[in-house]
UniProtKB/TrEMBL annotation:
One Pfam assignment: Phe_tRNA-synt_N
Positions of Mg(2+) binding: E250
Entry's Gene Ontology molecular function annotations: phenylalanine-tRNA ligase activity
Gene3D superfamilies, sorted: Bira Bifunctional Protein, Domain 2
Record protein name field: Phenylalanine--tRNA ligase alpha subunit
Subunit structure as annotated in this protein's UniProt entry: Tetramer of two alpha and two beta subunits.
Highest taxon in the source lineage: Bacteria
Matches recorded under InterPro entries: aa-tRNA-synth_II, aa-tRNA-synth_II/BPL/LPL, Phe-tRNA-synth_IIc_asu, Phe-tRNA_ligase_II_N, Phe_tRNA_ligase_alpha1_bac, Phenylalanyl-tRNA_Synthase, tRNA-bd_arm
Manner of cofactor binding, per the entry note: Binds 2 magnesium ions per tetramer.
Amino acid sequence: LKDQGLQDIQAADNQQKLNDIRVKLLGKKGPITEVLRGLKDLSNEERPQVGSFANKIKGDLSSAIDDQLKVLDQKTLQRRLAHETIDVTLPGRPAPVGTPHILNQTIDDLEELFIGLGYEVIDGPEVETDHYNFEMMNIPRNHPARDMQDTFYITHDLLMRTHTSPNQARSLEKHDFSKGPLKMISPGRVYRRDNDDATHSHQFNQLEGLVIDKHVTMADLKGTLEVVARHVFGEEREIRLRPSYFPFTEPSIEVDISCFACGGKGCRVCKYTGWIEVLGAGMVHPNVLSRAGVDPQVYGGFAFGLGPDRFAMLKYGVNDIREFYQNDLRFLHQFQREV
Ligand code: PHE
């Protein structure tokens, strides 16, 4: 019985069969149980001999079953591991990566240029106070220049900033002139109550620039803007300054770059003049300086405000500003950047 049992156990090639064998050999109706149950009918001399013999066989068989179970479990594990092998030499599947929006690429590029020129990049709130957006920029209440910028008011004193110029006042207030000149740019979204069309959006971007030191001149402004224009639009660009008006600069200028959309001849894009307006600028008004606690007798400088949307439209031939904000993938994918 024992030899046959051991043979069967070793031949069992899965857990189910092994369990069947266990039940057959050691179960309630199995031969060993039967022998043990019969002990009571044996004589006093035979009983201990038969009993210990039967128990020994029972023990041997049951440990053989345990051993075989371990072997089978091990085999199952091996099989599973072999099946689940990962081939680490397979080339990975490329993950789809996004790319910065073309407006952000334009702004990033300008930031890099200005950082290289020693400017710092500062941020300011898009929900701005009337105080900073207007008062500090020399536009008091009832000043007609408020009509230049149709404003989204939130409360009487709180509004969506109409330009990034309030960051001029914010940085003037903070700057410690004993540590050197103030040179900053401040890019960000601005808001105006405009009806959206191909050239107007109620929300667009500006990039403010401000340089304040002891001997800053309009020549510095022109030189700086020329660097910007040529960096963005190509080395052969010329710029031209036209007198203009802003309450926070005196004198104020508007800046055109030589037209390149139509080979310099002057087309519709350039209003048939050969020039196209790209930004507003000027020498910072003494009132702006003194309101921010800077002495206009000692310090002065220039400020400019340019439109990254406008820049990107000209540079990439986008003829509808709304394209930037509709997130049509066919549009966005044209500006996929190599990563
Ligand atoms: N803030 C002006 C605008 O939004 C632009 C500007 C900035 C003009 C700085 C002069 C100096 O139109």
